[in-house]
Amino acid sequence: MRRLPLPLLLAAVGLGIGLGEPEPPAPSGTQCVEHDCFAVYWEPGPFASASAACERHGGHLMTVRSTVAEDAIGLLLRDRGGRLWLGLRLPTRCTEPAQRLRGFQWVTGDVRTDYDNWAPSGRRCGQLCVAVSRQLSWEERRCEEQADGFLCEYNYPDSCQRLPPADGTSVTYRTPFGADGKDLVVLPPGSSAFVSPLGLRLRCEAATAGEKMRWGRSEPGAWPCSLANGGCEGSCEELDGAPRCVCPTGKKLGPDGRGCVSPCAGAPCQHHCVPDGERFHCMCSEGYWLGPDGSSCHDIDDCVRMPEVCDQVCRNTEGGFECLCHHGYEMVEGHCTPVSSCNTGTCSHICEDVPGGYRCSCHDGYVVDLMNPTQCVLQCENGECPAECNFGSLSCVCPDGFVMDHLPNGVTLCVDIDECDNNYCEHNCTNTPGSYVCHCLPGYELFDTNHCRLVSTEDSVDEYSGDSGPTLPVPSLVPPKAEHLHPGVLVGITVGVLCAALVLLAVSYHLARKRCHPPSSMEYKYGSPREKVMGLQQVSTSQKL
């Protein structure tokens, strides 16, 4: 294998080429609060190398969004001169002095802030970054320039408090980003604490997922009770110099020998676990029974235990049952009822189930609409009927062909319109409830609703003989329209017809009597009045004899 020359090897080590990233230097000072730690590194370099050094331990260049962060910078600098890179850089070509951040952006990708402290400067352009000076003012500098160091920020969801002091002990802390010291008040997750002369090495961590951070160690059991209660969640006891943790009633020691957990923690119960002192027992949900192993649960077939719980069909389900109905039935309030076609029918008034479907009917005063059998219309056969009124809106409606009439007593009627008075028909007209019918004179036929036309001679050929009948004369004038007869005229015609019938009856009776004379009667014909008188005298003489 070919080896690199010593000068190239040293250069590779300095640049970290192929040998891993160089370990960032230890911070010269650290300040931690509950969820954040700030560290200062006095390591000269450009903005890019400073940003990369912070990111190698899970942090980023410091963002100064409030006076709390500014106070932390003041403590870290400790009156030392120099300029340190902050996490501000210019993503645009030029600055905007009118803006709070002048067009700069935090390395976290946002511009949120409640604080700024710019040094006086006009509009500048180019690749610019921000450094903070001893006076804590922000200065715009070119990103490729060298600064005296940089400030890093590390964020955590939780932290551990420093260990309480114990007689004859000394604690030294170390953070995940390499800060060492004894004065740290808050420690981020992953920090370690070395306790001398006990020789204890503790770690800030959560005993189980989701728990708060606390000091622990890989070995189970308590450490000396004088230091942080031996790490016990409950009480710490020392018997014959051996510390041990004791949990309150209803709990037991966890796997680490220091935390307290429920007796049901890690229990094999499939459904429910019920604590019983430091022990437990399993239970199943309703509809299940506990298996022979004391932990598994098995479904109960409710349809076998309760065969008549359903009207028609019972189907067992996991942990329960379901009632079903046969075809043609539906579930209504827990019972199977026949399916009514009226449920999907569109009857406006009354619906009645019939074999194979349903039938619509109407309330009194209404009839089924012939054009739409599911709807009802007002029945106005006698020329008038009550109007259909909506009392909520005080509005009334009448069927087509009727007019509304308000009576003095408050009743609203629908009165039939006599369309024949409007001469809609060309020849004759017959009024009907809500409409009218046109008729034509002999020799004419309707070709639309209102008009008549002559019957074609071709239409009058005898269907059987093929001979045409007598040709009707074509009137030279259009026949006058038939006028409506007055009721008095109709009465007169009727009386005249009856009188004529009586006269015909009397004449018929008289003729019948003449044909039925007795045999002794004789009829004579007289040629003159004299003969008529002589004849009468002879008849009279013969009657006397």
Automatic annotation (TrEMBL):
GO terms for cellular component: extracellular region; membrane. Residues 33-146 form the C-type lectin domain. Its main location: membrane. The keyword Phosphoprotein applies. It holds the Pfam family THBD. InterPro entries: C-type_lectin-like, C-type_lectin-like/link_sf, C-type_lectin_domain, CTDL_fold, EGF, EGF-like_Ca-bd_dom, EGF-type_Asp/Asn_hydroxyl_site, EGF_Ca-bd_CS. Keywords: Disulfide bond, EGF-like domain, Glycoprotein, Lectin, Membrane, Phosphoprotein, Repeat, Secreted, Signal, Transmembrane, Transmembrane helix. The chain crosses the membrane at residues 489-512. It is found in: Membrane; Secreted. The keyword Transmembrane applies. GO terms for molecular function: calcium ion binding; carbohydrate binding. Residues 416-453 form the EGF-like domain. Residues 1-20 form the signal peptide. It is a single-pass type I membrane protein. CDD domains: EGF_CA. It comes from the Eukaryota. This is Thrombomodulin. It comes from Callipepla squamata. The lineage of its organism: Eukaryota, Metazoa, Chordata, Craniata, Vertebrata.
